[in-house]
Design goal:
195 residues, mainly alpha, 0% strand
Length: 195
């Protein structure tokens, strides 16, 4: 790992321990990486740039992890669906601090350059996840599980069920058995599609 990545990892660790709203102290980061505070500025021009790079790295890591479920072409719809949903929920629960990124209050506090980069990264993530679910649902269609996928209302209901479940499962106060939760989401997604 190069020095820039070490600095970013130290910042990410602070965010994981204290949340994004923490007052990031460069002296604290320099100490964690065992360098002088001024050395940080050899890799980053401003504190905002460090903040932006760390947030974008966290998001990219989560995107990569969430899409890493194996070859869905070799899976049935049920296995692909449950594997993908469970992976998304595990990542969300493991990194509940990421939910801060999705709140409007958090985004309002960010400098404009960070907002634009974050918005682009989130749009890309949404496109990648949407494509994955389209691929998975096309498997369901080919397996004869869904008679009509053209219904926008059904697509939105299924999406709402998955996204709503993600929000609920990533809530710190929620204590649900993940497999049972995913099994129920699958069950009701099938019902929505077959209605």
């Amino acid at each position: 790992m190069n020095r820039k990545d070490e600095i970013l990892e130290a910042v990410i660790n602070v965010f994981q321990q204290e949340g994004f709203s923490t007052d990031l102290k460069l002296s604290q980061i320099a100490e964690k990486v065992n360098i002088g505070k001024s050395t940080i500025y050899e890799y980053f021009k401003t504190k905002d740039e460090i903040y932006k790079e760390a947030i974008l790295k966290i998001i990219q890591t989560h995107i990569d992890q969430s899409l890493d479920i194996g070859n869905i072409d070799e899976m049935t719809f049920e296995v692909a669906f449950k594997t993908q949903v469970e992976k998304l929920y595990r990542i969300a629960a493991k990194s509940r601090m990421m939910m801060e990124v999705f709140t409007k209050n958090f985004v309002k506090k960010l400098p404009e350059t960070i907002k634009l980069n974050l918005q682009k990264k989130m749009e890309l993530a949404q496109q990648q996840i949407n494509k994955r679910f389209i691929d998975i649902f096309m498997k369901g269609l080919s397996e004869g599980l869904f008679p009509d996928v053209r219904s926008e209302i059904k697509r939105e209901l299924a999406t709402s069920l998955i996204v709503g479940g993600l929000v609920r499962y990533s809530d710190k106060s929620t204590n649900l058995d993940l497999q049972e939760f995913v099994n129920q989401i699958y069950k009701y997604t099938i019902l929505i599609g077959q209605e």
